[in-house]
Amino acid sequence: MKLVKNIITIDGPSGVGKGTLAFSLAERLEWNVLDSGLLYRLVGYLSSNEGLETSQEIVQFLKKSKIKLITNLNESICEIELNDKILGKDLRNENIASRASELAKETEIRNAIIKIQRDAYDSEKGLIADGRDMGTIIFPEAALKVFLQASPEVRAERRANQLKEKGMSVIMHDLLEQIQQRDEEDINRKISPLKPADDSLLIDTSNLSIREVEEKVMENFKKL
């Protein structure tokens, strides 16, 4: 397999800084970002807002639709253009996230999303792919694969701070338990389990700033 130098994959569990790193690198390299989780939120949105009840209905809708991923570097977010309608905040609520998590377990759904993810790569532009199986399943040809780690306690604290900034109350014990449960599910799921690719650059972000993580990645990128 020929390795592709202008794809960087960033995998890891929630709360390790994947999204922040992806946009930091994208700004530096002037590449696009693939927020793979947003595509699963699109599936949750279709189920919740468009009345598509089964996986088969959702897959058929996806196949017939025009879907474009948009990198908004100014706001450090990805958006989805679905049949000429921009979906941004529409995809970012907890009900849709919860539904997306359920549907992501369906083989038909994952297969449909894989094609959309791979189509996000523009060989002239370059891509930072953020997710849980980017280096193992979606872009195994990426020359640089990054796998971020951090302790559950650090990740729970980061998530708590995010929620507090939104004015939400937080119970740390419950938050830590949710993160540990999600890790167990992701690691042990039959389809695309969470694990580093064999040739991944492993980085523990527990005690590193985003700039320090970025520099570690760029050091390795410059060696390609």
Structure characterization notes:
This protein has 224 residues and is α/β, with parallel strands linked by helices. It has two domains: 1-31 and 126-224, Rossmann fold (3-Layer(aba) Sandwich), CATH 3.40.50.300; 33-125, P-loop containing nucleotide triphosphate hydrolases (Rossmann fold, 3-Layer(aba) Sandwich), CATH 3.40.50.300. The chain is built from nine helices and eight strands. It has helices spanning 18-29, 36-49, 55-64, 94-103, 107-119, 134-138, 152-165, 172-188, 210-221; strands at residues 4-11, 32-35, 67-72, 77-82, 85-87, 127-131, 142-149, 201-204. It has a five-stranded parallel sheet with strand order 2-6-1-7-8. A three-stranded antiparallel sheet has the order 3-4-5, covered by helices on one side. α2 (36-49) packs across α5. The longest helix is centred in the C-terminal third of the chain and has 17 residues, at 172-188. The model has no long low-confidence stretch (mean pLDDT 93).
